[in-house]
Design a protein that fits this description.
With 489 residues, this protein is α+β, with helices and mostly antiparallel strands. It folds into two domains: 239 residues, Nucleotidyltransferase, domain 5 (2-Layer Sandwich), CATH 3.30.420.40; 208 residues, ATPase, nucleotide binding domain (Nucleotidyltransferase, domain 5, 2-Layer Sandwich), CATH 3.30.420. The longest helix has 24 residues. It is globular, with a radius of gyration of 22 Å. The structure holds adenosine-5'-diphosphate (ADP).
């Protein structure tokens, strides 16, 4: 039997991530009432391949929704967030004809290289705001065209995992601005598919979903509503991508507020009212809605670098991130001149170079494990600062950083970010920014007021220490010189 609070009106937010699907039920003041997670398996059939099974994801969502439907019978809406850039082929009844190729799949490296360095590629980037990289569905389709031309022509549609799920729930092939923005084929200023991009892939517009506002109201198919025990009145909203929604949910949409997220990988994002690309093709510009564009860069080398160091220091029994923190804390600021370039798996922003390689610079006999640990933690943040500075060339400089992701478990690393960036860092309560962002959009779509998140969210605050700035500035200059040299710029 639902309890009293479970009988109140609420919003169900589903965030389809890379490693898990998160289900969060919020009340109408955005208080979390329920949280659960179901894992997603990534298949690696070949080197460079990263795929997921959209049918298995839909099955997990249906099973969990059946549980939530019983517990929260007064749910008003179901809304979505999802990882960007996935792509699968479907038939007209919504059956998956292939596995979903996800953002980390690199099979289209060759096609991407060619396009990135062409005039056409630059024009596509400047129109769509999606960097030319194997992550992008545009590049995946170029690979498809070369390797499976018949399947490319004959497939009913090419969709993301979220579009697949939405079709199976609502019977409509639709894609919101945020997800469309991440395909490399969407023209935000026209809110339409970009003919030039479609032309090079060889697909037609009818093979893509209808573009809709993130607040467009959809509804469940009757049989699905019955199966899942939801009222037919339940509204469904497509929402947006996890990147766009994380800024919204973290209250990082004001000018000069930057979201810095470091989990396995990382990202820097800020919001402005305008679509904006840069000459060097370094940054993305994704459309959340007509008034909000999310600009920034995604980096491959986030917390995963700490995991590498843990294994490097002790292969049989890897040193934990907590122990690496302790080691690094014992070193002086600036790791006694030791610099680490964290490019262990190529890099996306700012240079989008899959071949760039990392390393220690300035290593000598005086350096011990504590210096290595400190240099690695500092190096990840110098790279983030480099991306922030690239963003700040086009947008107001950071006056506040909203931090999220696994690295927020370390107060030491967060303080280091405040000192290196010389900017106040705040960490919000909970780790559910994207799901919260989706729920905020759904509430706005239904004209339901919710309390401002401004003063309620911040849980921890880190102010920059001016004393440390000088050491970090010197090291950062060395870091940028090394990076520019490495990237061959
Ligand atoms: P994902 O991106 O897969 O969701 P998380 O957001 O959970 O990952 O972040 C995982 C990363 O968080 C790890 O790679 C690790 O570097 C970092 N991390 C976890 N615990 C700590 C800690 N105590 N101190 C510093 N970093 C940590």
């Amino acid at each position: 039997m639902p309890t009293d609070s479970e009988n109140l009106p609420c919003i169900i937010a589903i965030d389809i991530g890379t490693t898990a699907i998160k289900f969060v039920v919020f009340d109408l003041t955005l208080k979390e009432l329920y949280l659960s997670e179901r894992p997603i398996v990534t298949l690696r059939r070949q080197a460079d391949y990263s795929e997921q099974d959209a049918e298995a994801i839909f099955k997990s969502i249906s099973e969990e929704l059946a549980v939530i439907g019983k517990r929260f019978p007064s749910s008003l809406a179901l809304c979505f967030s999802a990882a960007m850039h996935s792509l699968l082929a479907v038939d007209h009844t919504g059956n998956a004809k292939t596995k979903a190729i996800i953002w980390s799949d690199l099979r289209s490296k060759e096609e991407t290289k060619e396009l990135r360095h062409s005039k056409e590629g630059r024009a596509i980037y400047r129109t769509t705001g999606t960097p030319i990289h194997p992550m992008s569905p545009l590049c995946k389709l170029l690979w498809w065209k070369k390797h499976h031309p018949t399947q490319l022509k004959e497939s009913h549609k090419f969709v993301s995992i979220k579009e697949y799920v939405l079709f199976n729930l609502t019977g409509q092939f639709v894609v919101d601005y945020g997800m469309a923005s991440a395909t490399g084929m969407f023209e935000p200023l026209q809110i339409s598919w970009y003919p030039q991009a479609l032309k090079i892939t060889g697909i037609t517009e009818t093979q893509l979903s209808e573009i809709i506002s993130p607040k467009k109201e959809l509804s469940l198919k009757q049989d699905i509503a019955d199966d899942l025990d939801f009222p037919a009145s339940l509204k469904v909203f497509s929402g947006s991508s996890d990147g766009c929604l994380a800024n919204l949910g973290d209250d990082a949409t004001d000018s000069g507020v930057y979201a810095v997220s470091i989990g396995t990988s990382g990202a820097v994002r800020t919001v402005s009212p305008h679509f904006e690309t840069d000459n060097e093709m370094r940054l993305f510009s994704y459309m959340l809605d007509k008034e909000k564009f999310v600009h920034g860069g995604a980096v491959n080398n986030g917390g995963i670098v700490l995991e590498w160091l843990g294994k490097f220091l002790n292969e049989k029994n890897p040193v934990s991130p907590e122990e690496i923190n302790n080691l690094a804390m014992a070193s002086e600021t600036g790791a006694a001149g030791l610099l680490f370039l964290p490019y262990l798996q190529g890099e996306r922003a700012p240079f989008w170079n899959p071949d760039i390689q990392g390393g220690f610079v300035g290593l000598n006999f005086s350096h011990t494990q504590k210096h290595l640990a400190r240099a690695v933690m500092e190096g990840v943040l110098y790279n983030i600062l480099y991306v922030m500075k690239s963003v700040a060339q086009k947008h107001p400089a950071p006056k506040l950083i909203k931090a999220s992701g696994g690295f927020t478990k370390s107060a030491f690393w967060l303080q280091m970010l405040a000192d290196i960036a010389q900017c106040r860092v705040e960490v919000n309560e909970g780790m559910l920014s994207a799901a919260r962002g989706a729920a905020m959009l759904a509430l706005e779509a239904m004209n339901i007021d919710y309390p401002s998140q401004k003063n309620t969210l911040a849980l921890q605050v880190f102010e920059p220490d001016l004393e440390k700035e000088k050491v970090y500035r010197g090291n950062y200059i060395r870091f940028s010189e090394e990076l520019t040299r490495l990237a061959g710029q």
